[in-house]
Amino acid sequence: GKRIGVLTSGGDAPGMNAAVRAIVRVAISRGCEAYAIFEGYEGLVQGGKMIRKFGWADVRGYLAIGGTLIGTARCKSFRERSGRLDAACNLVKNGIDALIVCGGDGSLTGADILRKEWPGLIEELIQNGKLTVEEADPYKHLTIVGLVGSIDNDMPSTDVTIGAVTSLHRICEAVDSISSTASSHSRAFVIEVMGRRCGWLALMAAISTGADFVFIPERPPSENWEAEMCDVIKRHRQLGKRRTIVIVAEGAIDRNLNPIKPDYIKELLIKKPLELDTRVTTLGHTQRGGRPCAYDRNLATIQGVEAVNAVLESTPDTPSPMIGVNENKITSEPLLRAVELTHQVAEAISKQDFRRAMELRDPEFAD
Ligand code: ADP
């Protein structure tokens, strides 16, 4: 059987533990060995106790716990070839020939780079005496499989990422709480939610809570949005609405690519004609989720199963897969293409080609 390493990397997301649990247990039940790599790529680079063989019972209780119990980190050294050289050495020394990475686009980019460099890294380790030819011989090929863990739901080519739905639930609960006090005092609240390049959380939260206005990076408002927003809010107030909720994604921008900041919106609301008693709330890290909702536990579990399947089916010629979900079906597609799409989306947004960004995210958007 294969020896499968699993790590979680980048921002933590609820459901990552469920993914690790599924990977460990399915690996064992298929006659493979499972290794947990602690603290993301940091554990891979450092090796030693950071790489531990996991048994069935080591992931007991993982389903219901938020964040990631095997830890995550931003790892600078993995961005350098020298760090990846140490990582490759530690993988071989532990006999690990397959790696499942659960993280965002950065983490998956790193995984793909490691796989591409792999033969060269192994050769170099032999040349500088860190590995013998015999030691290295069984490790000519490294299997990589990606799972997307990200609360932002910012990966094109998958409908939902692990953690996004839990995060959305937390945001809705927070906005509901704020709504009670807003209605009581007849106040306005400008609420900043996470999402630097992706407005999914902001948009879904706005629909789910009946917000008055929402700002997202992908669709900057019209040129005279200030007046428009005030008109909309005024109309809502005239209809008897006692609370005003404006949701702003962290990465919200106007048509000149300038950030739209909650404090600026507040200034507009307290001025004439609205003159609303306005507060700004930044939801911050409560949005990272905590306890995963049932959807994320399920998604992470079935994707974890699929990730082990993908490891067992992979050959040296197949490109590294990324496990996604599209129209409710678990999918697998080349990791590299998915990662490239994220870079193209970022480029389209930076060029103000918002339509292109949406088309890249969702090909059906073009129709
Ligand atoms: P996310 O995975 O959530 O997008 P980051 O972009 O911070 O988060 O990436 C997490 C880690 O993945 C980084 O700390 C780094 O170790 C690794 N990584 C990211 N981008 C690269 C890259 N281009 N090359 C190598 N490693 C990378």
From TrEMBL:
Binding site for ATP: G11, R74, C75, G104, D105, G106, S107
Chain positions covered by the region annotation N-terminal catalytic PFK domain 1: 1-367
Phosphofructokinase domain segment(s): 3-311
Catalytic residues (positions): D152 (proton acceptor)
Chain positions recorded as substrate binding sites: S150, I151, D152, R187, M194, G195, R196, E250, R279, H285, T286, Q287, R288
Function per UniProt: Catalyzes the phosphorylation of D-fructose 6-phosphate to fructose 1,6-bisphosphate by ATP, the first committing step of glycolysis.
Annotated family: Belongs to the phosphofructokinase type A (PFKA) family. ATP-dependent PFK group I subfamily. Eukaryotic two domain clade "E" sub-subfamily. Belongs to the phosphofructokinase type A (PFKA) family. ATP-dependent PFK group I subfamily. Eukaryotic two domain clade 'E' sub-subfamily.
Assembly, per entry: Homotetramer.
Name of this protein: ATP-dependent 6-phosphofructokinase
Species this chain originates from: Acaulospora morrowiae
Residues of the full protein shown: 193 to 559 of 968
